[in-house]
Amino acid sequence: MKKLIPNSRTQFLGMFTLSMLSVSAIVSLRNLPTTALLGSQVIVFFLAAALCFFIPVALACAELASGWPKEGGVYLWVEEAFGPDMGFLAVWLQWMESVVWLPTILSFIAATTAYLLNPTLEKHTLFLVSTMLLVLWGTTLLNFRGIKTSSFLSSTGVILGTLVPGVILILLGLSQLPLAKLQGTLQFSREALLPSAELGSLVTFTAILLGLCGMEIPAYHVKNVQNPKRNYPFAIFFATFIILFVYILGSLSISAVIPKEQMSLIAGPMQAFHLFFSSFGLSWTAPFLAALTLLGSFAILNTWIIGPSKGLLSSTKEGYMPKTFMRTNRAEVPTALLYLQAICGTVLISLFVFSPSIHAAYWIINILAAQLYLIMYFIVFLAVIRLRYSQPHVERSYTIPGGKVGVWLICGLGAISCLAAFLIGFVRPTDIETHHSAPEYAALLLFGITVCCLPPAFFIRRHRKNKRTRLFG
Fold this sequence. Notes:
CATH architecture: Up-down Bundle
CATH topology: Amino acid/polyamine transporter I
Distance between the termini: 27 Å
CATH class: Mainly Alpha
Number of helices: 17
Radius of gyration: 22 Å
Helix content: over 70%
Structural class: mainly alpha
Mean pLDDT: 79
Low-confidence stretches: 1-10
Strand content: under 5%
Shape: globular
CATH superfamily: Amino acid/polyamine transporter I
């Protein structure tokens, strides 16, 4: 069993690599079909999400990582503010969210692979299951090689597989905007831009926040960063610009080409590439772009396979989980936790693929993952405020501007946004058929949240009992 301390084997990351890790943790062309359903309203939704949630998260993570640039990420930050029990709960929620989210990215990878081989394979359950499981376990084993290999694959994958096809998608989509406006499929009037006040329409805001989650993931590699107090904040701000650019313009591009009623939540980008290039007489290039998109999907999956598990490892060293989960290999990779994650993912994949409606399951899993993550972020925002008062003398190379007033405004806004989006998530969407009544839909999500939160409650109780036993015999 190896301890995670810097040594001659430590693998260092530069600012650009860290930026690409941030982008690869968040940006996925897989999310564009969901946000493209909003049409021109996506501009207002993303600007609101950026101002109320994403930018506050980026600022909060920059301050926390620059003040506590040690291994542990969310666990360390929340532990410093509220103690180890809350730290464990926060990092568990993050890890659990990544497990719940796995079927969505894997289904997109499987659908994209089907498009490249034979589009009809998308409807074959056996092909989807086998592809998703192969990719899940293959990526898990690949991450056993360590952070240097993992970060190289993520950085290369996000550039070639997300940014390149994303920019092409945006350029082609922008060229179609005048025609889309003329045909009435995409309008930019005041009425078209403003979201509907109906809760069933606003629930998409929760899904958008999930697409913007993950800015804290690079913090788990902060001990591998060269000059973290300077490079980490710069990397985050550079990544923020790229993420918003791709999401807003990419969503508009797909909306300009594909009508809402023809949108596939799983294969949307592939539809867009096919329609785009067919209209230019270049349909033969669509598979090439699909292959690049597939590479980008591997990059984001690769980032999420290792990041949350390294965070959870920090809590296992405090005795919250059985010692077997503390096992690491020579590359300081938490192999036991990666195995556990892959096993949980295998179970969820089986439930996901054999659901009566894959699209409905896709949406519900996305919302459940978002709600778990929003609970964690709510705790993180409170931790930033608490640490400004409890540890004001800790040196932070970056601090949220405005002193304590600025912290309350930024983190308060972020916390309120998390709470609002969490509650809105229980509302059944109007644009997607979920095959459940409104009460059934809300109860299903509440059941999922409860199941995901039971293990940390058990582990915390067990840890307290063991601690009392050690103290009093």
